[in-house]
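Regression test case RT-17, inverse folding.

Input:
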């Protein structure tokens, strides 16, 4: 967990022995938030907690406590472990493998460049009884990791963005803050009637056209189509509903639209899953666009889909299935007016209060606040809209609310 003196590598941010700080990890929106129950030192630092935070950001479901850093590779379950780095993988150093001490060390792999003897990784990491830092390490260096765990690798062709919050102002402008809650808002355009986001894309209806941008906030908007009845966006797909027919483009924004079904009244997407209401039934497909549809249930009042989970709301009752599409439904609670899912959290309005549970589906509910106009949930943040103000709590469910701005609507990635 704690790193020792430097050997052959390049520190791109931070220094060994410096005062505890999260400065090197601000780009990822991390400031010591507890994730999946991992402990931290008195200043909020620990390598395993930061690694869990980044995995949760990428939509990885909580795999359970993996132990000390040195034990992560042995406890990774079905996630591949090998000696090949990938963007989004977790680098592991065994006990006393430079620069680790007795409990080992883990770091998040932000980028991978080169090949063969020129292979190089850029990592970001935190340290128990230490501080945050970022490193550049070449293959063959004494500090090259012992193993890499592939919970959910990211495409090298994408530019993964830190956590984002977008608001839609009364003037039709979309404002986005990226990373920490105290960063400045960026105005990315006006004339919008709605906005949705994935981690790497922002989409919105603007003057009768669906516009999408991907990557940096200053990227150019791409017109993907004209008027639509509904739309969804992920990092690799854009979906639209027009007159009951569902179209999806898979891959780059200039890809062709593929018709994947008719008779839909609504739909949602996450990763390689598409879920929608079709002729009174909730149906889903996962994998390629030509995969077969699977019927999940009959009529529902609402539904949501996230990494590894699909949930429904029927007569105030929330049921969630975890894992494959044919998994059994699990009762989660009753008395709900609405709900949202993240990979590790369930949130909903119940009796005029916003309540949230995290971890296993049988976890205890936590009451976060009273009635709200709207709300969003991720594994590391909960956001609410109350009379035009956006408040967010980051980290544990008992964290303090921070007022970050205002708007008519908001969304988070």
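Golden output:
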């Amino acid at each position: 967990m704690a790193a020792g003196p430097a050997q052959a590598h390049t520190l791109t941010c931070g220094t060994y022995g410096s005062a505890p700080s999260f400065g090197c990890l601000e780009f990822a929106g991390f400031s010591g938030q507890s994730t999946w129950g991992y402990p931290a030192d008195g200043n909020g630092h620990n390598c395993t907690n930061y690694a869990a935070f980044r995995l949760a950001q990428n939509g990885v479901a909580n795999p359970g406590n993996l132990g000390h850093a040195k034990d992560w590779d042995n406890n990774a379950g079905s996630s591949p472990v090998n000696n090949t780095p990938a963007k989004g993988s977790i680098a592991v150093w065994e006990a006393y493998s430079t620069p680790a001490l007795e409990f080992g060390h883990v770091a998040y792999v932000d980028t991978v460049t080169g090949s063969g003897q020129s292979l190089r990784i850029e990592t970001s990491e935190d340290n128990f009884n230490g501080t945050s830092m970022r490193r550049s390490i070449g293959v063959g260096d004494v500090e090259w990791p012992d193993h890499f765990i592939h919970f959910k690798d990211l495409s090298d062709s994408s530019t993964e963005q830190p956590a984002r919050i977008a608001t839609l102002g009364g003037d039709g402008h979309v404002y986005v803050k990226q990373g920490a809650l105290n960063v400045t808002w960026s105005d990315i355009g006006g004339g919008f009637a709605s906005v949705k986001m994935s981690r790497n894309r922002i989409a919105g209806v603007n003057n009768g056209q669906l516009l999408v941008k991907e990557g940096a906030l200053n990227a150019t908007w791409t017109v993907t189509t004209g008027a639509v009845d509904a739309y969804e966006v992920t990092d690799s797909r854009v979906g639209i509903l027009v007159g009951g027919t569902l179209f999806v483009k898979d891959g780059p924004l200039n890809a062709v639209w593929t018709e994947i079904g008719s008779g839909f009244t609504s739909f949602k997407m996450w990763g390689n899953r598409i879920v929608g209401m079709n002729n009174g039934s909730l149906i889903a497909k996962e994998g390629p666009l030509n995969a077969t549809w699977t019927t999940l249930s009959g009529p529902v009042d609402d539904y949501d889909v996230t990494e590894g989970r699909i949930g429904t709301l029927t007569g105030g009752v929330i049921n969630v299935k975890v894992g494959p599409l044919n998994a059994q439904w699990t009762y989660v609670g009753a008395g709900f007016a609405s709900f949202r899912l993240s990979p590790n959290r369930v949130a909903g309005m119940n009796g005029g209060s916003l309540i949230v549970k995290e971890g296993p589906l049988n976890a205890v509910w936590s009451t976060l606040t009273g009635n709200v106009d709207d709300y969003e949930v991720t594994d590391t943040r909960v956001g609410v809209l109350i009379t035009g103000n956006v408040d967010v709590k980051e980290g544990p469910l008992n964290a303090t609310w921070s007022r970050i701005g205002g708007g008519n609507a908001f969304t988070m990635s």
